[in-house]
Amino acid sequence: MPTAIIADDERLMRDQLRMRLGQVWPELDIVGEAKNGDEAIELVDQLKPDFIFLDIRMPGKTGMEAAAAIGNKSRVVFVTAYDAYAVEAFERGAVDYVLKPPELERLQITVDRLKGRLAAPAGAPAAGGGDVNASVAAMLNQLAEKIAAPKKTYLQWIQASIGQDLRMIPVEEILFFRSDEKYTCVQTAKYEALIRKPVRDLAEELDPDLFWQIHRATLVNVNAIEGVTRDIRGRHLVMIKDRTEKLEVSRSFLHLFKQM
User: Any idea where the Response regulatory domain is (predicted)?
Assistant: First the structure.
């Protein structure tokens, strides 16, 4: 039975690709999943799969960098959303690829190619890593430069109203955000301010490593969390350092506190 690993930083995309592969190639055994290039390299060394489906853009080592490290240990299939130029480049080289989102008709073409590679003699060239010829490797390097992701920038300051005054508040000083129907409360250790931006927008603009969304109406600074408790109704509540109020955690966000 042929084996494969899927490497993509998006869980939904890994699940979707696994499902689609199961439809067009039910004999393929997906033996592992990786969230980044480093995990992909480690899994290839451990599990020695026939194929690895590598997302081109991932945190840490990219798919391109991971493919170079994997070499000919596994046949590489690149996963990309950049069909505008990636497809043309891939079609010109000995490189297998899957487009995001994976569609059955196009995925079937890739699977047919992969089955052919499995049937090829052991010394025959395979896609990815050390078996890719110089011209294809150069093409991949150019592609990697084109799609290199700029580092995402997050809000550093919040402009908020306190009475008739307007304040510029550094985000690291904010303990939590809590919305009602019209406004969002910005709570610091010293004062409370108001803004009109809803929590759902703030969640997209703030660093997710600094602010956790614990409720559809609440974001909390992880450095301000003292702990989590439960009330007599069974609700989980976040305790804030040096403050008496507690913030309710909705069920869909409880996973954030499993390690606490």
Answer: 3-115
Mean predicted confidence (pLDDT) in 122-127: 47
Handedness of CA 23, 26, 28, 31 (dihedral sign): positive
pLDDT at 131 over 60: no
What is the count of structural domains for the chain?
2
Contact 206, 171 (CB under 8 A): yes
Same domain for 182 and 85, yes or no, is no
Tell whether 12 and 62 lie within a shared domain.
yes
Task: Report d(CA 221, CA 213) in Å as an integer.
Answer: 9
Per-residue pLDDT of 145-161, as tens digits, reads 655 556 678 999 999 98
Contact present, 53 and 4 (Cβ < 8 Å): yes
Contact (CB, 8 A) for 78 and 97:
yes
**The domain spanning residue 142 has which CATH number?**
3.40.50.2300
Domain of 228? 157-257
Given 146, 172, 202, the domain boundary residue is 146
Q: What angle do CA 244, 250, 252 make, to 5 degrees?
A: 145
Minimal CA–CA distance to 82: which of 153, 135, 142, 14? Answer: 142
Residue located via tokens 């490189």: 95
Show Cβ contacts of residue 201 under 8 Å, excluding neighbours closer than 6 positions.
none
3-class secondary structure, 227: strand
Widest Cα–Cα separation across the chain: 77
Percent of the chain residues past pLDDT 90, beyond the cut = 51
**Number of other CB atoms surrounding residue 179 within 10 Å:** 20
Q: Are strands 29-34 and 3-7 parallel, antiparallel or unpaired?
A: parallel
User: 119, 146, 173 — which closes off a domain?
Assistant: 146
pTM of the model: 0.51
